[in-house]
Structures are given as C-alpha cells and as structure tokens.
Amino acid sequence: MPAESETRLHRQELILQLLREGVQVASQGELVELLQARGLAATQSSVSRDLRDLGVYRQGRYYALPSDSPADVQTVQQDLAHRASLFLQEVRSAGPHLLVLLTQPGGAQSLAVAVEAVQWGEVVGTIAGDDTIFLATSGAAEQRRVAERLKQLLPER
Q1: Which of 47, 54, 82, 123 has the most Cβ atoms closer than 10 angstroms to its Cβ?
Q2: Looking at the 3D structure of the chain, how many domains does it have?
Q3: 50-53 long-range Cβ contacts below 8 angstroms, 24+ apart
Q4: Can you state the angle between helices 140-153 and 73-87, rounded to 10 degrees?
C-alpha cells in the first residue's frame, strides 16, 4: 500500500494532467468521479486540499490552473489582475504592517497564491481563509505601496 504522501502526489499529478488536457471540471465532486474513473479513490476533502495546494482556482464555471511559468513576470501579473477582478472586494489597512484583503467567498486562497506569485519584495507573507487575506508587509511605507497596487486592481463597481 503506498504511503499517504505518495498517494497525495499521485492524486495531484492526475488532477494537473486532467486540467492540462482541457477537461472542464465544474465541481470537486466531479473531480472525485474523474479520479475514480482513472483508478484512484479520493474524497472531496482530499481533493479540496489538493486544489488549494496546487493553486487551482475557479475561472467562471470551471477550475483553472495557475500560470505554468512563474518566471514570466507579465503572465504572473496578468494572473493576479485576473484573480483580483474575480475575487477582490476591498483593501483595508490594519496597523503599519498588515493589510486585510476582503474577497468573494471562496476567493481568498486563490488570490493569496497570485499575490505571492508576483513576489513583491514588500510582502513578507500572506494568510488566507475563505474570504479574507492577512497580508504582512515589511514596513508602513511598503504597506502603502502594496495597498495602492492592490487598489488599482479592484474591479470597477
């Protein structure tokens, strides 16, 4: 019997393969069924964790992969702008080193992955829940710069 980590890695490889093949997956339950059809038993909760770990996010009705080329700065920035347009609702200051980003329900983790991918030097780290991200910066001036960049990405309302 394979170790749990081997099973997780195999499951994640299959998820990536399915999405790269262009299979349109609309729900975690559907993904569980697709994995089972390929001979791998999975639960909705394990698939949910896998999607989070892989940075997979919802684009419209279907799951989508994050940029495959993180070294491509323009692509990473476009990915952040896209995710911000889908999920970001508000940017708030919470002291000199912390920003609170409010998102659509379910959008925080996807947006946090994109924020970390752009590798802004001012960002020390992020913590994402379901609809809230805590974003730590290295200082007050850095916080203002990051807040301004993120506010420029807010969708027009």
Answers
A1: 47
A2: 2
A3: 50/8, 50/11, 50/12, 50/15, 51/15, 52/109, 53/12
A4: 70
Q: What is the pLDDT of residue 119?
A: 84
3-class DSSP state of 93: strand
Measured in whole angstroms, how far is the alpha carbon of residue 143 from the centre of its chain?
21
d(CA 38, CA 35): 5
Are 87 and 145 within one domain? yes
CB atoms within 10 A of CB 120: 16
CA geometry: angle at 56 spanning 48 and 12, to 5°?
65
At residue 97, the 3 state secondary structure works out as: coil
Domain boundary among the residues 64, 81, 100 is at 64
Q: Are residues 140 and 98 in the same domain?
A: yes
Q: How many beta carbons lie within 10 A of that of residue 56, not counting itself?
A: 23
pLDDT for 121 equals 86
Nearest 5°: the CA angle 8, 11, 14 is 150
Tell me, what DSSP letter sits at residue 41? -
Distance CA 146, CA 77 (A): 14
CATH of the domain at 50: 1.10.10.10
